[in-house]
Design the sequence.
């Protein structure tokens, strides 16, 4: 293959973009161009980006990641585009595996995806939980429901012909909509587990719950509109949906027990818990690979607060859908 173009949208990521670019330029590559589209940042991003030999495309106003990525693609010269996020650091072998995947599928109509490392750049419990959860969910299927823009590879001419990412879409999920649109046009989606980026989440409990709430809210709106609310789709996995449904059932059964004191209800709660553990066993095993202390904590979080945030987000999504009757356009910040 020839020139490879890395496209990075950036908005107020001055605290991490230097580390991201450093992981790219540590090993000089004459067949690589890096295009950073700054989406109207008001922090020190521009000053930081200019330290590196990349093409900087500054936008006058904050317009969203979709527009930034589309503009980056228009400025690119490579035969293939590699989309990542400003807070996604490349591993030493990431580009090797990207090129190997391109060579493997060079003549195919494909979009190639990678995922997060199990260990994030920041090693807090909630960031590690999210990194493992996303990685597991995205790698479950060799041909997934979507490819995420934190590691997406596509031929440049195919991307431009498609019209790129929708700029009038939800605040998130533009990569999901793009993937679904390309699948309808006959493209295959292929996950390559060897392609990894290390994400900087900076999650604490509140940020983790807010992330789960927001994604669930907009995913619910989008999925109802598309008619695949119960599909097994990446982080909107069937395991997570069942986990949330069983949590609701156990809460209702628990309330019934407080009133009736019938012991059979406790047995039902235990039975539903066992069913949930069996359904989510592979994800739970992924948690426990980090050790028993982390695994136990992650299991408890996955069975309680995390699905609760997902449920509340889904309820808000239902409210938005039935109020507007359509997928809302992008909400500007």
Sequence:
């Amino acid at each position: 293959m020839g020139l490879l173009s890395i496209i990075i949208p950036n908005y107020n990521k001055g605290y991490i973009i230097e580390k991201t670019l450093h992981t790219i330029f540590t090993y000089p590559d004459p067949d690589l161009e890096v295009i950073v589209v700054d989406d109207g940042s008001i922090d020190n991003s521009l000053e930081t980006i200019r330290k590196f030999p990349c093409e900087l495309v500054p936008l006058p106003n904050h317009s969203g990641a979709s527009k930034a990525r589309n503009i980056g693609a228009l400025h690119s010269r490579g035969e293939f585009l590699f989309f990542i996020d400003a807070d996604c650091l490349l591993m030493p072998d990431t580009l090797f595996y990207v090129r190997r995947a391109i060579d493997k599928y060079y003549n195919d109509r494909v979009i190639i995806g990678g995922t997060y490392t199990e260990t994030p750049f920041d090693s807090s419990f909630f960031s590690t939980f999210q990194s493992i959860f996303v990685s597991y969910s995205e790698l479950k299927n060799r041909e997934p429901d979507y490819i995420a823009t934190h590691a997406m590879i596509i031929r440049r001419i195919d991307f431009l012909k498609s019209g790129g990412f929708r700029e009038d879409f939800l605040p998130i999920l533009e990569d999901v909509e793009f993937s679904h649109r390309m699948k309808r046009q006959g493209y295959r989606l292929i996950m390559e587990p060897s392609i990894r980026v290390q994400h900087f989440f900076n999650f604490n409990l509140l940020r983790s719950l807010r992330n789960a709430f927001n994604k669930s809210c907009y995913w619910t709106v989008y999925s109802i509109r598309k008619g695949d609310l119960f599909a097994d789709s990446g982080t909107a996995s069937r395991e997570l949906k069942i986990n949330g449904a069983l949590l609701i059932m156990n809460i209702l059964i628990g309330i019934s027990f407080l009133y009736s004191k019938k012991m059979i209800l406790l047995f039902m709660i235990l039975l539903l818990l066992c069913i949930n553990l069996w359904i989510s066993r592979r994800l739970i095993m992924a948690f426990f690979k980090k050790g028993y202390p982390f695994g136990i904590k992650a299991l408890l979080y996955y069975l309680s607060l995390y699905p609760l945030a997902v449920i509340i987000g889904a309820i808000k999504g239902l409210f938005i859908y039935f109020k507007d009757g359509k997928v809302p356009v992008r909400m500007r910040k």
In short: The CA atoms of residues 221 and 318 lie 6 Å apart. The chain has 13 helices and eight strands. The two ends are 39 Å apart (CA to CA). Residues 327-333 have pLDDT under 50 and may be disordered.
